[in-house]
Design brief:
This protein is an alpha/beta fold. It folds into two domains: 7-215, Alpha-Beta Complex (DHBP synthase); 237-313, no CATH class. The protein contains eleven helices and 15 strands. The protein has helices at residues 13-24, 46-56, 71-74, 82-91, 110-113, 127-136, 156-163, 202-209, 219-223, 270-287, 302-313, and strands at residues 7-10, 29-31, 38-42, 65-67, 96-101, 118-122, 140-141, 169-172, 183-186, 193-196, 214-215, 237-239, 250-253, 262-263, 290-293. The strands form two sheets. Strands 1-8-2-3-7-4-6-5-9-10-11 form an eleven-stranded mixed β-sheet, with helices on both faces. The chain has a four-stranded parallel β-sheet with strand order 12-15-13-14, covered by helices on one side. The structure holds threonylcarbamoyladenylate and magnesium ion. Threonylcarbamoyladenylate binds next to strand 5, strand 6, strand 9 and strand 10.
Length: 321
């Protein structure tokens, strides 16, 4: 994906309005937060979210954090609970992300959660992020605004250094004060779990909750829980790079193939395919036990699609419970 020009927008009413309008059209806007700059897209628009992965050149799909203006907005998307009430009262707006079960009718694109049933949600404190959330009036999915494998940006200039020409705009809110991504706490099981360390410490969090936190079991689980076993895995058996499906297989197509039960993108557009991937895998998993998948070009965002499909096709132990 190459765009002609990335606009550097000032944090004025006009700049914020232009950023909000760009998000509403499905564009990508880097925005300042108090932790690091995020690469934002409308969290309800799967194609826009696929654009985040394309712009970052990320070779895999990690679930993303959704940014909201307040608790009431968060409650539109997740099943809220008592621990969330206490933590949000203590630390929102601020650098704390809560992972909660998705609620029915949430409307969040499945690529945001990488097909999980839970959503990471955070209410940023940065005044420019808050002004953009108010202007856009919707949920903003945003990972750090750096190319994959590079350090997280804390100024608009860093963002441009990495992503110029790949995103529509950067909203310049000055230097990010914290410079380290938010602390992430998982609230999907009865015992709150520390999923990522950040400036809000485990001690502060357990003091508010009145109990110790469970630890994600390995260091890798803390930095990349999205890569681990909690990740959505289909029940059905997957066979990849299939030109002609066998009898009994449902075909997840790509490009102009015939006989597909679902087609990731009939016109062969990788960004559209990424946007459809998790929803279509789920749909097929409900009706089929054998899924054949058309070849997906292993280039650009196709690498992330193939990474996810390869994980989904890998043999694994029978699931518990
Ligand atoms: O400070 C921050 O949090 C920055 C700014 C831009 O807000 N954002 C950020 O987003 O760091 P991101 O997308 O890079 O962090 C996403 C991480 C994933 O790698 C994963 O570790 C965790 O959040 N995550 C997201 N959804 C999850 C879920 N449903 N369950 C468990 N972990 C999740
Ligand atoms: Mg990052």
């Amino acid at each position: 994906m190459t765009l002609a020009k990335t606009h550097l927008l000032p944090a004025t009413d006009a700049g914020i309005a232009q950023a909000a309008a760009t998000l509403a059209k499905g564009g990508l806007v880097a925005l300042p937060t108090e932790t690091v700059y995020g690469l934002g897209a409308d969290a309800r628009n799967g194609t826009a979210v696929a654009g985040i992965y394309a712009a970052k050149g990320r070779p895999s799909f990690n679930p993303l954090i959704v940014h909201v203006p307040d608790i009431a907005a968060a409650q539109n998307y997740v099943q809220w609970n008592e621990a969330a009430t206490h933590l949000a009262a203590a630390f929102w707006p601020g650098p704390l992300t809560l992972v909660l079960p998705l609620r029915e009718g949430h409307g969040i694109a499945s690529l945001v959660t990488a097909g999980l049933d839970s959503l990471a949600i955070r209410c940023p404190a940065h005044p420019v992020a808050r002004a953009l959330l108010a202007g856009f009036d919707g949920p903003i999915a945003a990972p750090s605004a750096n190319p994959s494998g590079k350090i997280s940006p804390t100024t608009a200039a860093h963002v441009l250094g990495g992503l110029e020409g790949r995103i529509e705009a950067v909203l310049d809110g000055g230097a990010a004060a914290i410079g380290l991504e938010s602390t992430i706490v998982g609230l999907t099981s009865p015992i709150p779990t520390l999923l990522r360390h950040g400036t809000i410490t485990e001690t502060q969090i357990s003091a508010v909750l009145g109990r110790p936190l469970a630890q994600a079991t390995t260091p890798a689980a803390i930095t990349a829980p999205g890569q681990l076993s909690s990740h959505y895995a289909p029940e059905a058996h997957l066979r990849l790079n299939v030109q002609s499906p066998r009898p009994g297989e449902s075909l997840l197509g790509f490009g102009p193939v015939t006989g597909a039960t679902c087609n990731l993108s009939a016109v062969g557009d990788l960004q559209e395919a990424a946007a459809n991937l998790f929803a279509m895998l789920r749909r097929l998993d409900e009706s089929a036990s054998q899924i054949a998948v058309s070849p997906i070009p292993d280039e650009g965002i196709g690498r992330a699609i193939n990474d996810r499909l390869t994980r989904a096709a890998a043999p694994r132990a029978p699931r518990q419970g």
